Amino acid sequence: RSPNMQIFKTIWTGERLSPRRRLLYSMWRPPTDGRTFGVQTVDVTSLLECIKKRNDASSGPKITITHALSKGIGTIALDEKYDLNGHFFMGRFLRHRTKDVGVLVTARDGKDLGAVKISSIDRKTLKEISAEVKAYAEAFRRQEENTDHKKASNVLSSLPFFMIRAVVDVVGFLNNRLGIPTKGYPSQEFPMGRLIISSLMTYGVDIAFPPLVASMHMPAAVVISAVHSKVVVFEGKPAVRKVVNLCWTFDHRFSDGVDLAKIAIEVRNLFENPEALFL
């Protein structure tokens, strides 16, 4: 027998499938989704103590754990030694000069969602980050007409349904792939930076993985879960500590999974020894 006939026989002979397996295989398609998911439990006891101390000692915008986690995660994940802080275009990787993070904000009991872009998050104090998020959230929740979110919502409301996806895809490509701001459907260049952070603390959610929306052209997103007390090993002994879950969604086609593992280690070390965040 020729080798070709043997290969043909190997491919086309096998066990008979049950009706259920025939049904399942008839619907199977080769995977095209490169997303990787990961849950990381972080001890935030020391971080919460630092936040309380800073808030008690000064006036002005209050720092929350979301602000601190956003700064820490963004500073580490978008470091130049990893390949998240940039975008692909024409066969080249274009690295961004600043570390910009999008922090999600809700309105109308969670029925509307916006994002404030914190530019150069690694260079800003937690008080500055808190003030930016607060200012955006107040304008967003008042539904002020001069915000880009409100203007874009008005455009979407006036478009025929069949045109919405095409418009969002084109604007997303211009904003998030080319870095070109748009006016008709108002949005700035890279409107959410290169990392989205969403907090579900107030909803009591323990694990929830954020989506990677195609039109955003984003490589990663993080959900911050609720704070819980948990018995863990601390300094060699059982202790009750405050912990949160960081739930990562990461596109493996954009960068290697080893980057996510290294980022997770750095993030855990920072939040368990958080003094550097307050410098």
TL;DR?
It contains eight helices and nine strands.
Discrete helix count: 8
Helical content, roughly?
A: 25-40%
Q: Spans of 5+ residues with little confidence (pLDDT < 50)? A: none
What is the CA-atom radius of gyration, in angstroms? 23 Å
Tally of DSSP β-strands: 9
Mean pLDDT: 86
Indicate the topology.
Layout: H1 3-12, H2 19-27, E1 35-43, H3 45-57, H4 65-77, E2 86-89, E3 92-95, E4 101-107, E5 112-118, H5 126-141, H6 148-158, H7 161-178, E6 196-199, E7 220-224, E8 228-234, E9 237-251, H8 257-272
Parallel strand pairs: 4-6, 6-7
Antiparallel strand pairs: 1-9, 2-3, 4-5, 7-9, 8-9
Descriptive account of the structure:
- This protein is an alpha+beta fold and 279 residues long.
- A hairpin with a 4-residue loop joins β4 and β5.
- α4 (65-77) packs across α8 (257-272).
- It is built from eight helices and nine strands.
- 38% of the residues lie in helices and 22% in strands.
- It has helices spanning 3-12, 19-27, 45-57, 65-77, 126-141, 148-158, 161-178, 257-272, and strands at 35-43, 86-89, 92-95, 101-107, 112-118, 196-199, 220-224, 228-234, 237-251.
- The mean pLDDT is 86.
Q: Which structural traits does this protein have?
A:
alpha+beta, seven-stranded mixed β-sheet, globular, 279 residues, two-stranded antiparallel sheet, single chain
